[in-house]
Each structure stands twice: as C-alpha cells, then as structure tokens.
Amino acid sequence: MQEKGLLIVLSGPSGVGKGTVRKELFSQPDTAFEYSVSATTRLPREGERNGVDYFFKTREEFEEMIRDDQLLEYAEFVGNYYGTPVEYVRATLDAGKDVFLEIEVQGASQVRRKFPEGLFIFLAPPSLLELENRIVTRGTETEDIIKGRMKAAREELEMMELYDYVVENDQVERAAGRIKSIVIAEHCRRERVQHRYKKMLEVD
Amino acid sequence: MQEKGLLIVLSGPSGVGKGTVRKELFSQPDTAFEYSVSATTRLPREGERNGVDYFFKTREEFEEMIRDDQLLEYAEFVGNYYGTPVEYVRATLDAGKDVFLEIEVQGASQVRRKFPEGLFIFLAPPSLLELENRIVTRGTETEDIIKGRMKAAREELEMMELYDYVVENDQVERAAGRIKSIVIAEHCRRERVQHRYKKMLEVD
C-alpha cells in the first residue's frame, strides 16, 4: 500500500510574512512538497498571478464552491474569502506526496478538525512591534486597518495552542530552513517509519 | 529563568555506524550541541583517543563509578562496560545547552527512564543484510561474534518502540543532516516556545 503524504499547514497572523516564507521555500530546488494554491475573492496585488499565487474568484463563484463542498477550509478575513480547494489536496496525499498549505488561522483550525494528523506550523513574528512595522512599511493600508490587524494578531497569537510547531520569522531564509527541518524530522518520527522496519524483522 | 538544553540520545544496533555519524555531526561547524564523552572498559581501536572518543577505564575503575552513582546509564555489551558520566550532562543542560549522547540501546532505555523528556533517536540500518556487510567488512571479528551481533541487532530493532525518531543510516552525511533537522524541529515545538510568546501578549 502506498504510504500517504504529509499535510503541512503553515499559518500565522496576517502580515507576519507567510507568503514570503512560502515563496522562499518553493524557490529552493530541494523542496520536496507540493504547493496547494488557495482560492480567494480579494483583488490581486501587484505581481500576483491567477493559478500561481491564488485562484482569484468572484464572491459568487466562491460561495458556489462552499455550497458544493469543494473547499477543505475557508475563511472570511478583512472582507474577503480565502479557501483551499479539497480535490487537489486529497489526490496529492493519496499519491504519497506531501502537500503544503499556506492559510489564515481561521482556516487552519478547520483543517485541524478534518486532518488531525496534519503538521501544523505557526509562523510567529519576533515581536508585536516588529509585526506592526511590517504592516506599516507595506504602505498600502489605513491606520484603522492596521489597528484592526494588531487586535487580530493578538487573538491569533492565542491560537498558537492549536499548532504542533512555532517558527519565528526573524529572517525569511532561516524561517524556511526551519520549516524544511520540521518536515524532514516528521518523516523520521518513529510511528511513521516503524512498520517498514517491522517487515525487515519478519524476513530472516 | 534559564531555559534548559535538550538531551539528544543517539542509539541503535551495534555496527550500524553510530560513531561515524556522531563524528560527521561534530565535524560540521554549525553543530550547536555538546558531545558527552562516554566511559568504557573496552580497549581503544586504532586512532581512538582517551577523553575524545571515550574515557578508557579499567573494570575496577568503572565498577567504582557504578557504586558511586556517577553514571547516568551503563551497559555491559560483548563483555565490556559502556557508560555516561552524569555530572557533565546535568551541568551542560542546566546552562541551556543541548547535550548529545551516543550510546548502546541498553543504556538508552535507562536514560529514557531518568530523562523521559529527552529526544531519543534510533539509528537504523537500511536492512539487516546491509548491517551484516558492515560488520563483516570491519574485518576484525570472528563468525561467532558476527552471528551474536545479528541476533542482538534483531532484538535491538524491536527496541525501536522506545524512541521518538528513527534515522536510517543509508549515507553518513544524510543521516547527520536528518539528526540536525530533528534537533532544529524539536526547538520549534509549540510546547517549548509557547511561554515566550505568552509574555509578548501580556505586555501591550
């Protein structure tokens, strides 16, 4: 029987740099997991491409996906929907490949309920001040949006409880390296590999 | 309060290459843990140095250490004692540094009882045949010793149950890399870092 892949879920407060870390991971040639592209109703930022960064959907299209149960998780965040199409995730895991999701914290807790055996990684800011700096220097948001995000971030940090690992995003290459280490380590967990060695003992 | 270091225990069947993997790990400049040198009554192999590879002891000296409770663990294996002096381990962990032990499987289960929170890594051969090849090509043992070791290896593989991680020693640099990844991942475990972030939430 084909061994199933790992479901790797990267989440964390808005503005912490999930997308940057994910891009760093997937720019490295030895990254051996498949990226699951999310669907969203928010407008593309400069340089974002449909089907690569997100599947950009209208609100009507997105709500149809919800009704048809085509989403592993979805969340509404700052007025927009974000979600993960389920079909690609299941097919890739069944083929024995690891799947990587980069999603908002609301969505991550939905995935936790459906895939408790998944690998949940919380990307954390070095400090809340640092988080604020990052949001401000993005330079495209009003002060009210920033304040709202700070409040959300505090709530989201409390959600850390649901995760297996916490990776501090002090520096993007280091954060990506830690995530790769976590995936390598999880593949070495005794429960996961034990059955292979039990076979060796049966054959003399 | 100073956060304690991790106790990392590498063990596995005799002949699997624990010493070679340990040497590879400690030859790399970015390895950030301290090696705990074992004590033994076996004779030095060519190139082994006292205080670096082992503390070489007489049987009388070793039994005195046992009586004085100076050993974290000890085992008798193929007619010789092997053990870990406890003082260095406790002092290094208390100073917040990770300590690395490379020990026989008998000893590892003693350490598990005393340090259940330790990180236990089982170094496994790619196959029992491969294990046999390695022992034979070392070229210094009789056939009876080899047969005895094969039997021991099968028993030791059954001991895998006690470990957190299994690292296959298919290739020494890869095995060392996996061990480093496991240590990095363990430092990111949520339980371990959560209290740091809780502090951030208390301070507004």
UniProtKB/TrEMBL annotation, chains A, B:
Q: Which residues form the Guanylate kinase-like domain?
A: 5-184
| Xref: PROSITE patterns | GUANYLATE_KINASE_1, GUANYLATE_KINASE_2
The UniProt transmembrane annotation reads none
Any one Gene Ontology molecular-function term assigned to this protein's record: ATP binding
Q: Which GO terms describe its cellular component?
A: cytosol
- What Enzyme Commission number(s) appear in the record? 2.7.4.8
Q: Which residues bind ATP?
A: 12-19
Superkingdom, taxonomy of origin = Bacteria
Task: Give the keywords, sorted.
Answer: ATP-binding, Cytoplasm, Kinase, Nucleotide-binding, Transferase
- InterPro entries in the record: GK/Ca_channel_bsu (IPR008145), Guanylate_kin-like_dom (IPR008144), Guanylate_kinase (IPR017665), Guanylate_kinase_CS (IPR020590), P-loop_NTPase (IPR027417)
Kindly state which reaction or reactions the protein catalyses. GMP + ATP = GDP + ADP
The answer to whether the entry has keyword Coiled coil is no
Compartments, record wording: Cytoplasm
Q: Which Pfam families match?
A: Guanylate_kin
The role this protein plays is: Essential for recycling GMP and indirectly, cGMP.
The similarity comment for this entry is: Belongs to the guanylate kinase family.
Q: What is this protein called?
A: Guanylate kinase
- Provide the species name: Mesobacillus subterraneus
Per UniProt, what is the name of the gene that codes for the protein in this document?
gmk
